[in-house]
Amino acid sequence: MKRLSVIALAMFALSAQTSSGWVTLFNGKDLNNFNQIGTANWQIVDGAVQANMGTGYLVTKENYTDFEIKVEFWSANGGNSGVYMRCMDGAKITDKTCYEANVFDKRKDQSGRTGGIPNYAAPIAIVDAEGKWNTYEITMRGPHIVVVLNGVKTIDTKDETLKSGPIALQYAAGDIKIRNVQIRRL
Length: 186
What we know:
CATH superfamily: Exo-inulinase, domain 1
Number of domains: 1
Order of helices and strands: HEEEEEEEEEEE
Shape: globular
Helix content: under 10%
Mean pLDDT: 92
Structural class: mainly beta
Radius of gyration: 17 Å
Number of helices: 1
CATH class: Mainly Beta
Distance between the termini: 40 Å
CATH topology: Jelly Rolls
């Protein structure tokens, strides 16, 4: 009877999770939802995907239009990464052909630092991210883009340039770790 109750509780929890619409893109075990582009040395260690050499992207196999995405990241040693969204071409990722929620505290042009979207919107609040786990919560609904970093809204803007496309996780420099990537279509 006790075992049956545990199974019923687990099934209820699973149904609650799926009814909320959240889908796990990175589960801490494999990269099945992504194509790898570039030379980054992606490895899965302790439930996080990490890189510290080369450059490259993990690009979703699906396209997304209106959505909420949550990404936990850690950067150190001048870490340079980003969450690229609505990319025009999943094989040619740039901060001009995608909206990039940047991860780069030490960027020379601080308008594109962590919390900003280079070439599109400067952060309205500064949040230092290096050397600790951080959470991006990003909402893209039509032209409205909202970026929240560690509970602080850093972007609230409108832009109609990019409508839909894959999402890419970048490795460019330093030490980067990413975990708990979840998305919900709106």
